[in-house]
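Key result, reporting period 2: structure in, sequence out.
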């Protein structure tokens, strides 16, 4: 076959697979299989097809390309999450308290999971400590997009469309809230931990470069990577989101995006936030998420948010399907060649033991009611939230980033473990998420009915 024939066949396979992916959410509804599972399976089969000599779909061979593709996918997903969340995050103590589950997952569960995964990588997979830490940081982000039943729906809007920020609409910012604590906790966690995991990956890369970490290195990491760059990322997102929110809802009539009806501001916003966050050396994924939250806060119930979310959701869906298709093909095209039994066991323990235990520990409280509400989780909700920590695109991004910016030890093993973990998570959580969350929905309805 000529190179042109291979290229044409690639276009055909990708096009047909994505077309199938567009149909799958409807075909798999109410079934114990998800669209990501099917797309990943199609990719697995595609990877078995003959490739041109010297060509490989293994991201280890194309880390820079993998980094850019996953970057775009993540910033699109973060924007969709930020706009979709109905629970505002502003200056009042009550607002921050309603995000209690999120803070626990980010500040307690994630560091504990990173520590446990790093130890497992060192002990079971035989990784050097620096590589084990890079792996653990890469496996930290969660991705509810790959199990759609565990993410919140679109934004709640009133459809008045007048674009004015009235006093009663400011009151709506306080009244607006999510009615599903599990979906909110998992979605908001995913919005934050793509950026929150970055310092730990950087710490691992520092160990790769120096071979060890001194007390001064740790102090510098805490001051700059953990705190300083986080503050910069949040500040950039707040500033960009505030400015764009004002332009969308409060600018003079001729410049007001909400009145113009063009939802493509939702594509512009994450690019500006990410680019500025990177230029100022902040964690740019945090910038993107906070930017989306601030844009939503500009006029929280305006119908324009629904239009923007519709655009970004379609783009996110397409990009995610493409990444899953390529991941599946890579898995059978050599990505798993360096997977050992120890590495596979790390993935299994992360999904079935580490995440459930660290999540349950972080979310523990004295509440015994199944559906607690107001930022609290009942016992069954705590278990569901702890278990449904889906691994996905963030893991692939961090591995690509680490490969592009460092001479990683055990690089092939890291990719094998990471790819296997994502595939296992897509399978397990894709099958379990729907019945688990819908059982909670029925339980919630029963309690509401008295």
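The corresponding designed sequence is given below.
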């Amino acid at each position: 076959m000529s190179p042109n024939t291979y290229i044409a066949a690639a276009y055909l396979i990708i096009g047909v697979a994505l077309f199938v992916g567009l149909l799958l959410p409807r075909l798999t509804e109410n079934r114990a299989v998800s669209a990501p599972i099917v797309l990943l399976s199609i990719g697995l089969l595609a990877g078995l097809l003959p490739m041109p000599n010297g060509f490989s779909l293994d991201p280890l061979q194309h880390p820079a390309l993998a980094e850019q593709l996953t970057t775009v996918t993540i910033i699109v997903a973060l924007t969709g999450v930020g706009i979709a969340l109905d629970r505002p995050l502003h200056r009042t103590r009550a607002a921050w308290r309603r995000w209690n589950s999120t803070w626990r997952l980010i500040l307690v569960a994630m560091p504990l999971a990173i520590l446990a995964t790093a130890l497992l990588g060192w002990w079971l997979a035989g990784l050097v400590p620096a590589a084990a830490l890079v792996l653990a940081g890469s496996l930290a982000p969660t991705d509810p997009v790959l199990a759609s039943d565990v993410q919140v729906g679109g934004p709640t809007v009133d459809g008045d469309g007048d674009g004015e920020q009235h006093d009663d609409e400011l009151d709506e910012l306080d009244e607006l809230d999510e009615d599903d604590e599990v979906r909110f906790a998992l979605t908001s966690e995913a919005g934050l931990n793509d950026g929150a995991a970055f310092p730990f990956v950087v710490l691992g890369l520092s160990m790769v470069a120096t071979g060890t970490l001194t007390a001064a290195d740790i102090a510098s990491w805490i001051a700059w990577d953990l705190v300083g760059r986080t503050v910069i990322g949040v500040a950039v997102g707040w500033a960009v989101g505030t400015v764009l929110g004002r332009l969308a809802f409060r600018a003079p009539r001729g410049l007001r995006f909400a009145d113009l009806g063009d939802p493509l501001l939702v594509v512009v916003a994450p690019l500006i936030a990410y680019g500025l966050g990177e230029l100022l050396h902040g964690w740019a994924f945090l910038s993107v998420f906070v930017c989306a939250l601030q844009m939503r806060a500009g006029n929280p119930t305006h119908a324009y948010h629904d239009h923007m979310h519709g655009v970004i959701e379609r783009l996110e869906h397409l990009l995610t399907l493409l990444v899953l298709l390529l991941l599946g093909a890579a898995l059978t095209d050599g990505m798993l060649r360096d997977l050992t039994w120890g590495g596979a066991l790390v993935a299994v323990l992360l999904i079935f033991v580490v995440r459930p235990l660290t999540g349950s520990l972080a979310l523990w409280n004295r509440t015994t009611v199944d559906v607690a509400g107001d930022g609290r989780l009942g016992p069954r909700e705590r278990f569901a939230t702890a278990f449904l920590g889906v691994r996905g695109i963030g893991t692939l991004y961090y591995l690509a980033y680490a490969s592009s910016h460092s001479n990683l030890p055990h690089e092939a093993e890291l990719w094998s473990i990471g790819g296997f973990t994502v595939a296992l998570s897509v399978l397990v959580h894709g099958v379990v998420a729907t019945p688990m969350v819908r059982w909670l929905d029925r339980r919630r309805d029963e309690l509401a009915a008295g």
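Confidence is low (pLDDT under 50) at residues 165-170. The domain at 3-448 is CATH 1.20.1530.20 (Na+/H+ antiporter like fold). This case is discussed further under Risks and Mitigation.
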